[in-house]
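User: New here, any thoughts?
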Amino acid sequence: MGCLKILLLFFLFMNISSGQKNTIFQGQHLRVGEKLESPNKEFRLEFFSLDANKTQYIGIFYNLPSNMTLFPGDDRPVWVANRDNPIQYASGNTLTLDDDENLKIFYGGESFIMSNSYNVTTRNASATLFDNGNFVLVELNTNGSEKKTLWQSFDFPTDTLLPGMKLGRNVKTGQIWSLTSWISKDVPASGSFTIGIDTNDSDQLIIWWLGSVFWTSGRWGNGTFGNISRVSHYEYVNLSFVSTEDEKYVTYSVSETRTLSRYVMDTFGFIKERGAAGPFGVCFYKPSAGCVTEESIGCSIRNDSWFKRRPNSVSGNRFRFANNNMSLFDCKKQCEKNCSCAAFASITATGTGCDIWSNVSILNSLESDVFILDDERGMFIFTSLSFLRCCHVTRKSR
């Protein structure tokens, strides 16, 4: 009998790689290099790093079929557990489900609570990665069936909307479902743009930039929003608006043959669909309808263009902002507020921080990437090849 107890304890505290592939039970550990995988093999959850193994996160990814045509961003996580709390990279870091039903990341003698079950102590809980990409923590009955859901990743989106996820709010509990952009393509921390349902019950989606309204979808009617074309929904996308006494949200589904679907709130205020322009058609500059005017504080709207060129530096009067969490879009907006601003740049290799220049006079070869706005005053100012990697090389306002 004693040997049987020891054997049971051994199996309980096994690494996840030796047990269930999509579920972690109390006392089990998910280690660096291991993963949870959904039963349909479409999603995986694992530790990852974006900066040459300096910092580390836990994220959920699409598994990319080897025979599939890939698009920019396909290898990005669809969800990041600790986006605003990166941990120092170490091979000994672990994810554990503890006795208090909390998912915890252990690193360097410290821990970060990934989920909070409000200290309901039980020895019968598990966390499972499902086929839709949702990571769900549940309390179990004695027979192993689900008793209640304690926490789920779909309730805490990062920048990505998957089929079946919600954008909106639970009226009774106050739960908010929204997407917030990354600071840059290499920094998943919460950025400047957020999209969600209007809290004033206008039945429309709103994108906020630093808390101010940046774009509105128009009201819902006839199966779409007023400022969103039906054509841009695509034939495989079913966009839905749900309004009940308890909840008000937008969601979408796709045809069974469509895989790897996602909508991303990007760092420049776009909602992007994988491999194409998204159904929300979000604007960067003021269009004929649907966007708040972008009149800058100090100047009238400037006829500016973006250029993607080889790295160069500029000489002139430079001002550096103290906030290193500014995105490149934030830096652009600061430049546009200053009538004499001729150039702006991120100050880190990951695309964060902000320098702006006025009265640019000299162009020199440079040691680091610089991202520049050319306002068509006859200056040829160059940018890093890494700038706007996706698709928007040149844009003009109005």
